[in-house]
Amino acid sequence: MSTGDGGREAEYRRLFLECAVRIYTETKTPTLDSQVALYAAHHLVDALRVYDDMQAMWGRRAKRRRFDSPSARFAALRHLKAAGLTFAECLQFFGERREENPYARAARDVYAKNSDGLIEVDDKTVVAPSEAGAFVLMWGFVAEEDVPAPSQGTQEATHG
Question: How many whole angstroms from its chain centre is CA 152?
Answer without folding.
Answer: 35
